[in-house]
């Protein structure tokens, strides 16, 4: 086994609330004070959703955008200022396959991930004078995590009762490895997913009419399962 060469001074853990945007500048400065630089920012905070739009309070949509979208771009803004001074860095954002397609029961989550895709793809075009600053969007499909236990539902006070089986999802360590490979190789966008979800991504990109047909069929079954508590 290889011994880690990391010492205590190489590790700094700070509590961070993405929705407390006024704290992001101080958090960034604390990291810079400790390490002197930030090479990589990984935006990996967010919550999903499982509810039908017609049943969902609008304040749930506000909360999703505050966390998934505005919280992410707030933190990015402070770290990017430093990277522009250094003319170097990588900003890795964990989006989702939901950032490139639509799906039932996740309209607000899809919207927030589409927003991230649009924002970072636009930001990349503003950084052409900084070729060593990479904007990398990672779009995972289903991955084993606690995201289901923490989903938004029809209202902010309600949590999900049945998180379901996760064994069919991609193992977390494989998703992390593929994310690191994508980051090391400066991929603008990486779809990190197993089939059949990956195949649906390709359909959505290259044959959207077929994708809509398929999603309507799959979506109907998914909504029926949701309503019957499966």
TrEMBL record:
- Residue span of the signal peptide, if any? none
Q: Name one Pfam family in it.
A: adh_short
State the SUPFAM superfamilies in the record: NAD(P)-binding Rossmann-fold domains
State the Gene Ontology terms under molecular function. oxidoreductase activity
The answer to keyword Oxidoreductase applying to this record is yes
Keyword annotations from UniProtKB, A to Z = Oxidoreductase
Enumerate the transmembrane spans: none
Tell me which domain of life the UniProt entry assigns to the organism this sequence originates from: Eukaryota
Q: Which family does it belong to?
A: Belongs to the short-chain dehydrogenases/reductases (SDR) family.
Q: What is this protein called?
A: DHRS7 reductase
User: Organism source for this protein?
Assistant: Oceanites oceanicus (Wilson's storm petrel)
Phylogenetic classification of the source organism: Eukaryota, Metazoa, Chordata, Craniata, Vertebrata
